[in-house]
Amino acid sequence: FLDTSQVEDEVDHSIRKVYNGYNGTNPDAASRAIDYVQRQLRCCGIHNYSDWENTVWFKQTKNNSVPLSCCKAALSNCTGSLTRPMDLYSEGCEALVVKKLQEIMMYVIWAALAFAAIQLLGMLCACIVLCRRSRDPAYELLITGGTYA
After folding, report:
1. By its UniProt entry, which InterPro entries does this protein fall under (predicted)?
2. What's the whole-number mean pLDDT along residues 95-122?
3. CB within 8 A of 93, min separation 6: which ones?
């Protein structure tokens, strides 16, 4: 069995791998997903915007800036420059993604429980109908092959 710290380490490793594969000039699916998450959740980087400094994309661009998806939505002149950190979302995305996943899992669990309750109710109704039918004399004649006179 995996303990909680191993799971957290694995999630952290996976997210770092995705961030390291970011390519802003020719965005692939993973890069578009990062930009989408950062815009929607209003976050930047894994733990904060400084995480971008360790990515391949940041080192290749050499412009000391993070992706524009890190810019606060209200700002129109944001360039993603690390010299203006007040223009960037300060919260990291990892915690927010985990929180969203937990919320989604709660909905899935409640939906599964509701479905199970509906099935139990259906089985209970079927049992009640069968019990009442077995006491019906006309039903007994059908079972034994008898007929009405």
Report:
1. Tetraspanin/Peripherin (IPR018499), Tetraspanin_EC2_sf (IPR008952)
2. 89
3. 15, 37, 38, 41, 43, 44, 45, 46
